[in-house]
UniProtKB/TrEMBL annotation:
<feature type="domain" description="RNA polymerase sigma-70">
    <location>
        <begin position="74"/>
        <end position="87"/>
    </location>
</feature>
<dbReference type="InterPro" id="IPR013324">
    <property type="entry name" value="RNA_pol_sigma_r3/r4-like"/>
</dbReference>
<keyword id="KW-0731">Sigma factor</keyword>
<keyword id="KW-0804">Transcription</keyword>
<dbReference type="InterPro" id="IPR014284">
    <property type="entry name" value="RNA_pol_sigma-70_dom"/>
</dbReference>
<feature type="domain" description="RNA polymerase sigma-70">
    <location>
        <begin position="250"/>
        <end position="276"/>
    </location>
</feature>
<dbReference type="GO" id="GO:0003677">
    <property type="term" value="F:DNA binding"/>
</dbReference>
<dbReference type="GO" id="GO:0006352">
    <property type="term" value="P:DNA-templated transcription initiation"/>
</dbReference>
<dbReference type="Pfam" id="PF04545">
    <property type="entry name" value="Sigma70_r4"/>
</dbReference>
<dbReference type="InterPro" id="IPR007627">
    <property type="entry name" value="RNA_pol_sigma70_r2"/>
</dbReference>
<comment type="function">
    <text>Sigma factors are initiation factors that promote the attachment of RNA polymerase to specific initiation sites and are then released.</text>
</comment>
<dbReference type="InterPro" id="IPR007630">
    <property type="entry name" value="RNA_pol_sigma70_r4"/>
</dbReference>
<dbReference type="InterPro" id="IPR013325">
    <property type="entry name" value="RNA_pol_sigma_r2"/>
</dbReference>
<dbReference type="InterPro" id="IPR050813">
    <property type="entry name" value="Sigma-70_Factor"/>
</dbReference>
<dbReference type="GO" id="GO:0016987">
    <property type="term" value="F:sigma factor activity"/>
</dbReference>
<keyword id="KW-0238">DNA-binding</keyword>
<dbReference type="Pfam" id="PF04542">
    <property type="entry name" value="Sigma70_r2"/>
</dbReference>
Amino acid sequence: MAARESRETVAANQRLIRESMKVPLLSREREVELATRWVEHRDEIAMRELIRAHMRLAISIALTGQRSGLPLSDLIQQGHLGLLQAVEKFDPTLGVRFSTYATWWIRSAVQDFVMRNTSIVRIGTNSAQKAMFYRLRRLTALHAASSEPGDMSAAVDLIVEETGVSRAEVERLLVQVTSSNLSLDAPRGEDGEFVLSDLIVDERPTPEMAVGDSVDRGVGSAWIADALGTLPARERYIVRRRHLDDEPATLANLGSDLGVSKERVRQLEKRALDRIKEQLRKRLSDYGITDIHDAFGHLHA
């Protein structure tokens, strides 16, 4: 369904179309002259004349986007922006007519606008998907006019044959192209007693849970720090380097630092961790927790 515009907007669109059609077309020589004045001297008078003479082109391309249901005034505005980009990028020395060059920029601006606003689901994020998007819209429109309503299998087969894309990918994009958006605030139920957003589960922790987790982490860190303080200096050094540094040290590196073998470092590490775990078990038992891995799973020999 097309977007409904006010009478004033419709009248303004019609007036703009009539006025654009009255502007005479430019000869090749005049076109090159105006473009050169803009490129070399930034002559705004020349630039405006070049734009006015090609506004009918921007409008004609904008009109092709009406099937999307978007307001014509917005489509014309996007066509105008594409035309401005074309003027900025055009090189009059290449011998190409400006209308040929501008068509690409205008069409790209209008098509990008349609894809951004047809659905709240982002589609057409690369050039291949953009091409597929418009092919799908055209083929589904032909299908709707020639096939039985609701039977999309024939359209899918046709699109697969025409594009060479897998059936699964066509069906996925087809759902996005042909489906309408649902508001999360739309009433649901027989009497509208709830909205769709009520059915969406928020998996984030509640503020109470977040505060509790933060407190638990703080308490746990304090307990581990206390336990580390009871260890001999060499064992405390090994545990810090092996378990608390951003880049854990290897047994070989620690053996070299301490002047002992890798096996001796492993033994000292295991003894230190056993001592820490024993102290933590005593503290956790006061809270009814018997498995230390539930709270300090990262401490392992």
